[in-house]
């Protein structure tokens, strides 16, 4: 029989298949030795180019990045990626990324545990004197002082007391919001049976070494999603809570004024038994209460392509048509302006002295490249800070209408994440979609600290934080409160 006969070609093809590692890889479902492949490529004639290296998921620069496979640097073998597979525990890029993030989180927590405690105020003053000698610039000294204080913040669990201890063990924190004086904390908790429950935590007992607070609850439930929350000053400062609720089935969305006295009375001689006051406002994304005299007893809601200004006492409404959904709002205190952040990335201010006719009510216009999720006006009202869904945090000069500072490191892709600016302490605080709490210096945009979540990273467990210069009231100390899952933590800043 000739050499070109079928049996000869079949045996010849089998030898090629057995000798070539690439064919053996395609027939394997899980493992492959990269060393054999590397030696085969290195021994090949005329092969002067190095193989393509893997980035990110490969975990090693000395092994090739094979489409559809993942190289585990610990086990030193390839595993097949299964996109869209219906196995109970498939190996996917998402699970690999989750594993890497969890490893990083545990490393940061371990570093925090090893961190030394702040010794004495005397040693801190000595370091301040040394810093003043090394850094004569006030800005450099201020930045170093913030970095020193932030790096010494330690996580301590807060003991929460309630009339219903069983609820504390089952209800998970959705969000927390401190009032103006930081002596109360409004909470939205997810109930195990479905829906939400509201409460107010009294922070006056938040003193070291025993961090104990009391939660006041009310049997007021809702099975609708809470889109936005802010404190409202109707009878007195922070007398009510303003909530924007999504519509459900045949029930339209609404804005609800919830009296804080339904939970606990902070003004026994002034507070009267409050009643719920609801306004039928469908599809509200955001809300803000006005402390400006030009819009007294008014609140604003950001809707789909519209801003609605409502007077609580008279019921009068003004509507301003916009070109995009309004996701965040804040009233200025000195100037008669209402700042709005839109899904399109536009930030604009409404002049409250103008009517809603024509286009003269738009006072300022700024632009981000992605949807704006938070807008914060600085005290002098010459600058505004905004964050977006691209993870950008920018400080804008309103007079020059340009970005003067950018804060790097924030992570966000699609979530409505708030931004916390504290000029008295000179810090900016934001929680990213990766569940890390980051603290920047307000003056030079330096990232001072990255705080990992006490729990594994999850889209459903993004921490909610509150930072204040006086936690617990006027005599309180600066600190950061973090609510995640069923726990509340305090980071003393001093």
TrEMBL record:
Bias (Basic and acidic residues): 24-33
Gene3D superfamilies: YVTN repeat-like/Quinoprotein amine dehydrogenase
Record Pfam families: Beta-prop_DCAF4 (PF23761)
SMART domains per the UniProt record, alphabetical: WD40
Keywords: Repeat, Ubl conjugation pathway, WD repeat
PANTHER family, sorted: DDB1 AND CUL4 ASSOCIATED FACTOR 4, DDB1- AND CUL4-ASSOCIATED FACTOR 4-RELATED
UniProt pathway: Protein modification; protein ubiquitination
Organism lineage: Eukaryota, Metazoa, Chordata, Craniata, Vertebrata
GO cellular component term of the entry, any: Cul4-RING E3 ubiquitin ligase complex
Biased segments, Low complexity type: 51-64
Subunit structure of this chain's protein: Interacts with DDB1 and CUL4A.
Natural source organism: Propithecus coquereli (Coquerel's sifaka)
Renumbered ranges of WD repeats: 368-406
Function of the molecule: May function as a substrate receptor for CUL4-DDB1 E3 ubiquitin-protein ligase complex.
Chain spans, region Disordered: 1-66
Descriptive protein name: DDB1- and CUL4-associated factor 4
